[in-house]
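Lay summary

Proteins are chains of building blocks that fold into shapes. Our project writes down both the chain and a compact code for its shape. Here are two examples, one after the other.
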Amino acid sequence: MNNSRNIYLKMKTLKEAREILFDLFSSDKVLPSEFVQVADSVGRVLAEPITAKLSSPHFHASAMDGIAVKAENTFGANELSPIELTVGENAFFVNTGNALPENTNAVIMIEHINVIDENSLEIEAPAYPWQNVRKMGEDIVATELLFPRNHVITPYCLGALLSGGIFSVPVKKKPKALIIPTGSELVDWRNAVIEDIKPGQALETNSFVFGKLIESCSGSFIRHEIIKDDMEKIKGAVYDAVHSDFDIVLILGGSSAGSEDYAKNVINDLGEVHVHGVTIMPGKPVIIGSVNNKPVFGMPGYQVSSIVAFEQFVKPLICRMLEQPDNERKKVEVELTRKIASKLGVEEFLRVKLGVVGDRIVATPLPRGAGCITTLTRADGIIRIPNHIEGLNNYENVNAELLRPLSFIKNTIVAVGSHDNSLDILADQIRSKHSSITLSSSNVGSMGGLMAIKKGVCHLAGSHLLNTEDGSYNISYIKKYLPNISIRLVNFVFRDQGLIVPPGNPKKIKGIEDLGRDDIEFINRQAGSGTRILLDYRLQQLGIEPRAIRGYENEEYTHMSVAVAVLSGAADVGLGIYAAAKALNLNFIPVVTEQYDLVIPKEHFESKNIRILLETINTAKFKKRVEALGGYNTERTGEIIAILD
């Protein structure tokens, strides 16, 4: 095994790296052209200017149903002195689109004609020259420029091209990329059996994502078969590509500093590495090199990291090859729901959920892991944190690049608070009947949800805060922390909360009293969550000090994350809901049945979207789906528990 490790060259800023890339591969290189049928040309870039071969219309055409006349023959007609015309001599019946008969220059609408008999007509008003006529060349005149060089053909363009007598067009060949997925751990999902995937193996997905990204910016691609960690085989694939008709080569994976990260050495051996590492997050490990005067990229293995690198380097390069602008996303001003720390010297691309609350667009950060593809699929926007600041403050106004239309964001119900699996069912059930409405839930714990309501950055919060004095839920906390806000408290579900343990309960855990044992590793929920408050209350009842529990300080933000920690062996036990344990086939030791409510400010309670949400949770179908998760009771679901004014 090769134990040598790469070291990053002096990392470049995003601006520096892009300048190096574009200086190396400027638009001086002209892509070859090819002819394609007009019907197949949408999305292609014209290689030459296109001029019309045919006028449109190429004859004088009637724009109405009626009679074609010579306007001069109708002058003087009025109600008191109508003019009689003879069919076939000075009046000719025409339909819309018909060519005008010779020696006519106007059309009188059929409803303005009095028919005397089959040969005679009478008009009571004169026509003027070219009335109701589409003159020859009204739209297009032969030889006129239809579209200039570098114009991108749209579906609308087809009509103009065909009407102008153009049936094929010269277009630039699509920049062609070879995508080379590398890594001994990779498994081709097309041949994979889920049950056979071993720890350490990973489904190869990036090449398929990149292929469609390349097509979306008018390029084409070929996907190479997976190459294991073999430097000579990777080198051979790159060599063959740069000496054939490929314009770009992407080596996927192997761009970091590990002992089996070969992309840098491959590029160096065949050509030159110009950039190894860019001060962006995610996307730092990207490599920009040249081999045989062609761009060769080493792309990070983590999915989000690789996509950010693609959008910042590969996409704009393809656009330049096609002499097209790299269109920037629309930006809007948003308000952050919480403070965000960031590393000085690194430009961060922060994925966020967006929603309109009152007159503000609020942004809730998503997890920041470079390998978490769902942070992109769930994101509505991206906030770029500059490299010269160390983060963003609570409720600071910043710009976000939109990943979805503003109309989508305006129809988003923003829920912040405690996590519950049934929220996913609610989101899906709403979309099944109201496709324009989206439920966005952020998991910050019950107390975090109440604070979000206090700051006015959400429409509702999920909460299950136990009053340890009287056993009630949520009301005492709302009175304490939201004293000046009118609230409607609606029951969502009752759910079973307990200890999640591996199948068979190998440590023979019986209850919370066992958490203090030396042989047990615990996984906790974050401070401020209802589950954490429940745990601390039970520990106090039992006289167990939190510091006596191994893993008490290790926190997760959702019940499913707790369950995964137990499933993976990272912990022996965690406190969570039965539905999470059931979903992953784990054992469950009941502790309590708790009340999970929706805390809704009065100002949003009567809104259309919240009304639809409440109607949805009251349906039998929603309740049936929730109960199927296990550990839920929906007997009071949708009931207003309290009105707090």
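And here is the second example, written the same way.
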Amino acid sequence: MRSVWLLLFLSILAVANERVTLIATCLDSNSSGVKASDNVSVFYDDYHLSAKRAHYSRDSSVLELFGSVVAMKGDEYLSLGEYAKFDINKKERLIRPFFLLDRNQSIWMSSHSASADNDLFEVDSGVVSSCDVTNPLWQIHFGGAEYNSQTRWINLYNAWLNIYGVPLFYLPYFGYSLDDRRRSGLLMPYFGLSSSEGFFYEQPLYIAPHKSFDIELRPQIRTTRGVGLYSKLRFVDSNVSSGSLRVGYFKEDQKFADKFDLANSEHYGLDFKYANSEVLDRWLDLKLDGESGLYADISLMSDIAYINLSSNDETKNATSNQILSRVNLFYNTQESYYGANFRYYLDLKKQSNDDTLQSLPSLRYHRYLKSFLDEHMYYTFNIKTTNLYRPRGVNAIDTDLYLPLTLQASFWDEWISLSYSAQMSGKYITFSGRALESNVLSKSEYNSGIFARFYHNINLNTQSFKRYSEYTHTVVADASYRKAGVEHRSGYYEDKQRVCNRYNASDNFECDFYSIANIEEVVDVKLTQFVNAKDGSQLLYHRLSQRLSLDPLKERLSELENEIDWKITPSISIYSDLFFNYQRSLLSKMISSVRYNDKTFSAKASFMYEDRESDIDLRYTNYLVFDLLYRHSEHYDYFAKVAYDVEYSRKKYAEIGFLYSKRCWEFGLRYVENNRPILAQNRASSVYDRYIYLTLQLSPIGGAQMNYKLSRTQE
């Protein structure tokens, strides 16, 4: 035996196919083994170990470490103990006591001891958490655990969740991953309890079989309402395209459907989204100079319950009764744009959409602005043909032409700009199909129609700019004069002109295809000003707009519009858009909001009012929304929101709650009232629900959302 004192000594031991490297200040070596002390470091496989003392046996190929043992595996995790044993031949390890720290996820595990065979650690009873080690806010106590250092997956058995030392939940088994890469497994579950729907449970399952696609399955059960399954496929089929497909089905319990007069006892649908930014090149191998693209957003469903049942948090779902599906295909060059647009409208208030007009497809060509005569003359050209189709009723093919020709000049160093535009447009429409029997007024008379129009537009524009020490001020004045020219109408456009120019024309089926607005002789005056800070941020935007009619049969002054967006201070801002009606001496429409936002408190109050006059009656919209957020501290947020329909004296939405957030966990509680539409037997209806939502998120292992539905009131 020999001793080396205060000398760095490197010993490389080859055993089987493994290599162990020891570095120490003091090292004793003989034929049976090596003993090391003082600043001991060991490199074995992909481990870096340190300890006060180490002993390696050449006969048994066993490495033992004593005192303040630290084992690092790459840069991913760190384990500590007082004693560690490594069997090099058998690839077995023992650490006692055992402390594991994952640096990426900031989560730790503590146990009396742990043994390992290859990549699998068997851990005795212990604790896991991601909070501060000395005083953790939450802990999961377990009777035993397994940890795979290769897959970085942890299984806990006989686990109790403790929050502030109080046991809350027991789980016979709980597994989670320390790997932030996508992988298959269970996602955060959702629980709920409702007086009308019973107990709700949804357990999402995430499946990632390949890097180019994954699947999410969301089975759910509502014990007194029914069962359902929603699934979503996400995929990437190339480096320029990706998409997703969601399908869902829910089966109502017949007693529940009868009790609430539901139109359907089965709800199903699909949502498909896809985008490709080089579709012609990738699909048809067309090596074109321009750009091409495809975008699809398609939604089909039996009724609105398909949306409402997709999640237990119905407040996050869209509640509109109008669903639009669209597919856009285009090819674009520097000079021209070619497009094909498909539009499918789904009215969820109806049990059948056979009489709803669809745009399948709309083909368009656009010629970009072209200049000549030393850039004093410009022209562009647009043509669009639309196939308006529905299974029941009259269909049409509608073609629109638009050709504006503009002459422009600037004067006094471009301080004033003057332009004249000759506006030329035309329409041609043909019909097919038969009018419904109930449409007796139409007498099935839908003649092909031609419409042509030529009118004039003169525009005068001036702009001034001034820079101050703290801000800049820009004022833009714009005046335009429009003069009706000549028109030609025949067929449908002549037959329906009188009835379709009325206020309530949208309620008349004969005007389904009529899209012509009258051209009046008018003058439009607009004054706009901007105030910007030195850094370019906008402090004030103000626009004043007025139309004057020169038609002796029309009112001289139309509504005056005044729009302002003013950032009064860094924390306070207001927005307002007002319309004043001279003839009725009142504000016919108003959209206003006041906003306050600082580091502690934010609030927004919005108000919308509209007074619409028609041939039949007056119709009102009167709507209020209040939104508050109070940041009590770094960790506590309190919030509230109310949306109220003043016209119908009906609360549309209300919410109040709080969120506690720290590095290792989040806890939230909120009370929600929500008015959402449903489809009852042969009529549209709505349901007023009240909820209590509880959210618990333990970072990084996941969490759960639970809710209790207090009531269900049908209106």
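What can we say about the second shape? The first helix runs from residue 254 to 259.
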